[in-house]
Amino acid sequence: MLEDYRAGLTVDRRHEEEDRAAGKLLRCPALVLWSLRDDLEDLYGDPREIWRRWAPDLRGHGIDSGHHVAEEAPEALAASLSEFFATPPA
Fold first, then answer.
1. In whole angstroms, what is the distance from residue 67 CA to residue 54 CA?
2. Using an 8 Å Cβ cutoff, are 35 and 7 in contact?
3. Rounded distance between C-alpha atoms, residue 39 and residue 51, angstroms
4. Integer Cα distance of 7 and 56 in angstroms
5. What is the rounded end-to-end Cα distance, in angstroms, of the chain?
6. Is residue 2 over pLDDT 70?
7. CA–CA distances in Å: residue 87 to residues 31, 41, 54, 64
8. What are phi and psi of 42, to 5 degrees?
9. Furthest-apart CA pair in the chain: how many Å?
10. Deepest of 21, 26, 32, 68, by most Cβ within 10 A of its Cβ?
11. Reduced to 3 states, what is the DSSP secondary structure of residue 90?
């Protein structure tokens, strides 16, 4: 887990900046899900607006849970994933 944080602050960030400068986009559908009872929206606003710059076929919504969505709202998470995978690309 700590390695993930380290990469996000160093090498991943550098790669992201290089990709942004090159105009690279995600070419596959992307799903953004987040907890509604966490501080993500308070800190960053609507996460879809952040990802929309990289993902033209973006879908997603908040889920009524705390930080650990998979543990706190497994049914809602499973339903969101099922719908995403059942919907053809735009």
1. 24
2. no
3. 17
4. 25
5. 34
6. no
7. 11, 26, 20, 22
8. -60, -40
9. 39
10. 32
11. coil
